[in-house]
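#onboarding

Welcome to the new folks! Below is a worked example of what a typical request in this channel looks like: someone posts a single protein sequence, and someone else replies with the predicted structure as tokens. Don't worry about understanding the tokens yet, we'll cover that in week two.

Example request:
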Amino acid sequence: MTWVEVSVTVERERADAVAGIFFEMGSGVLWEEPAPALVTVKGYFPAGAGVDRQVADLRRSLAAVLESEPGVGVRQVREEDWAHAWRRHYRPFRVGKRFVVRPPWEEYPGFPDDLVIVLDPGMAFGCGTHPTTQMCLAMLEEAVRPGMRVCDVGTGSGILAIAAALLGAGRVEAVDNDPTAVRVARKNVEANGLAGKIDVRQGYLLDAVEGPLDLVVANITADVILRLVPAAARVLAPGGVFIAGGIIRDRMPEVIKAVAGAGWRRLRTEERGEWAMLAGVTA
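Example response:
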């Protein structure tokens, strides 16, 4: 498969905002540091009829955020070439108190209490290094109880669904409207030996999910989360937990208002750089 790589180099303090634009457009993000004060942010989009429009939209969004026209690099890459380069940078790393994320080609001895997630994110999804993913993982550590029924909306690589299952959730549903995400997530679920516990399916938000659920987690974008809140209210059981990540910090007040409007109690908010996460509990 052929992909289009879009890259932009910015000052370190602006990198989160640039990554947010890629993230909002559904691209996974890679970071490189060509100099101490600079970061090169790279995103990947499937080559096809709509990619020129995506790149044009990306240029406009970057210019608006950076207040100038940035230098944007665009090139086509083959998936196998990207995978070879990716392997040089992807090593096991620890997230939260117990999680360790490792690629399939790296062994990790670990400690007895470690929860190891084997993850090959593919070209379009992150490997768990993004701040919003890490905040969601840490929140799952606190919120998941044995036997819970959990749904991961916009599952991407499947990392949050896998994490919930490893924490003891009884049944996990992982939903994404992108067929590439469904394929990647299923592969990762199988690599972790959780195919009997996690149901990965293609769908829009919670349209095909029946309640009651004990926890809904979504690491997507603020606009999608605002649409998700009323759907989550339909399927969450009383006392159910709603975890929302992928939120640019400036959009957090809108999400807080939506959660309050649903009558939920705000459990926690957290910010890291330009990114934010919210957890709420239903009445």
